[in-house]
Each structure stands twice: as structure tokens, then as C-alpha cells.
């Protein structure tokens, strides 16, 4: 009886030991942390991955890209820094630009030509008017004026002469540029600059008086650079007299 009971106990011990070992192994497996999956290496992001919902680039890659762009922009010359060579035609025009002494010289020649044509046109207009009135074609018109006929005819002749005087500068300018057509553009440009200077530096004529007249308001008497400087001095003298009442 005792022997059989002991044998039964000995047979039950290995099974219990196997059960306990399995329990210990299960407990140790539950207690130990599960290994985390290793992160895979991030693949190179293609330009089309942004639109397909891929992960954004890392801050380091973004910084490197910005630095490379800034370096490329600093080394690339801007359009303002690029110096384009001036055309040969523009350089030739600048070399042929008219100076002020030449301008005043040509202006004096043109003025003399205008004066000559004004004189010729004045005498020609007066003579033509007198000849035309002597034919009696306007006797009915002359009779309607409440003046003596000789006075009326004289006024008409004077009007024809004045019309010729006014047409003289137009004819003289046309003839002048007919022979010097190459300088017409430069003369026009210089005249615009000259009259702009006159308008800027001339005095206010509202404060003129008999003892302090306006000195050449339109600058018609200026015939040289020295004359222009004298004109500026006259303007300063006028302003000084206006303020000091000398």
C-alpha cells in the first residue's frame, strides 16, 4: 500500500514540473517587452510623391535646398547688373550732339534769314496790295467805311505789308531747314531745352515797374553762352531791386 502510493507520487512529479515550466515560460514571455519593429530607411522622395500623399521632406533637407537656391540666386547676375553694350548708332549720335555755342550760332543765322525774308515780304506785300487796290476792285468796299478813301486805302496797304512781315519768319525758317535738314532734329531738341531754361529762370513780370522793367522776358536777345549768363545776371538784379526797392 505504501509502495504503490509512493510510486504514484513519483509519477506525478514530472508532469507538475513540466506544467510549472510551461507556466514560467508563459509568464516570462508576457513580462518581457515585445521587440519594436525597426524603422525602415526613408526612401528618396520623388517630385511626384507630394501630390500622392507621401510624407513631407525632413527639415534638414528643406534647409539644404533653401541654401542651395540662395547660393544660386546670389551668383546669378540680375538684369540691372548686366551691362549691355551701347549701339554704335547711339554712340555716334552722342558724339554728334550739338553744343550750345553751335546752337546759338545757327540760331543767329536763322534769325537773320527770317529778318531778311520779313523785310522782303513786307515790301512785297505792301507793293502788291497797293497795285491791287489801284485797280478799283474794292471801291465798293472802300465806300462803305466812314473814312476818307485815301485813309482807307492806306490802311489796307499797311495791312498787306504787315501780313508780309508776319509771313517772313515762316518762309525764312522753311528755307533755312531746306539747306540744313541734317541739323533740324538737333536744333529742335536744343530749342526745347533752351526755352525750358528760360521759363525756369525768368522773373515774375507782375512786379515790374517803370524803374524796374522786365529784362528780356522771352530771351530773344540771347545770342551766345555769354549772353545767356548776362541774362541770368539781369534776372538776379531784377529780383534784388524788387526786394530792396532800390
TrEMBL record:
Domain of life: Eukaryota
Keywords: Membrane, Mitochondrion, Mitochondrion inner membrane, Protein transport, Transit peptide, Translocation, Transmembrane, Transmembrane helix, Transport
One of the GO biological process terms: protein import into mitochondrial matrix
Gene Ontology CC annotation, any one: PAM complex, Tim23 associated import motor
Keyword NADP set for record: no
Family: Belongs to the PAM17 family.
Function: Component of the PAM complex, a complex required for the translocation of transit peptide-containing proteins from the inner membrane into the mitochondrial matrix in an ATP-dependent manner.
Name listed for the protein in its UniProt record: Presequence translocated-associated motor subunit PAM17
Species name: Magnaporthiopsis poae (strain ATCC 64411 / 73-15) (Kentucky bluegrass fungus)
Amino acid at each position: 500500500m505504501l509502495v504503490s502510493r509512493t510510486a504514484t507520487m513519483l509519477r506525478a512529479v514530472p508532469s507538475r514540473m513540466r506544467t510549472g515550466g510551461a507556466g514560467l515560460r508563459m509568464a516570462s514571455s508576457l513580462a518581457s517587452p515585445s521587440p519594436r519593429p525597426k524603422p525602415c530607411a526613408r526612401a528618396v522622395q520623388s517630385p511626384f510623391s507630394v501630390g500622392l500623399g507621401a510624407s513631407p521632406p525632413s527639415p534638414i533637407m528643406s534647409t539644404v535646398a533653401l541654401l542651395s537656391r540662395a547660393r544660386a540666386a546670389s551668383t546669378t547676375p540680375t538684369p540691372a547688373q548686366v551691362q549691355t553694350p551701347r549701339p554704335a548708332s547711339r554712340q555716334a549720335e552722342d558724339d554728334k550732339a550739338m553744343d550750345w555755342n553751335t546752337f546759338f550760332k545757327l540760331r543767329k543765322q536763322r534769325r537773320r534769314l527770317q529778318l531778311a525774308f520779313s523785310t522782303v515780304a513786307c515790301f512785297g506785300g505792301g507793293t502788291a496790295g497797293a497795285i491791287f487796290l489801284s485797280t478799283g476792285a474794292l471801291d465798293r468796299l472802300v465806300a462803305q467805311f466812314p473814312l476818307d478813301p485815301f485813309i482807307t486805302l492806306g490802311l489796307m496797304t499797311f495791312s498787306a505789308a504787315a501780313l508780309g512781315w508776319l509771313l517772313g519768319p515762316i518762309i525764312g525758317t522753311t528755307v533755312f531747314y531746306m539747306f540744313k535738314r541734317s541739323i533740324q532734329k538737333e536744333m529742335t531738341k536744343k530749342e526745347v531745352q533752351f526755352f525750358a531754361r528760360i521759363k525756369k529762370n525768368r522773373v515774375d513780370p507782375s512786379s515790374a515797374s517803370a524803374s524796374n522793367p522786365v529784362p528780356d522776358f522771352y530771351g530773344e536777345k540771347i545770342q551766345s553762352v555769354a549772353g545767356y549768363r548776362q541774362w541770368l545776371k539781369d534776372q538776379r538784379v531784377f529780383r534784388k531791386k524788387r526786394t530792396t526797392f532800390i
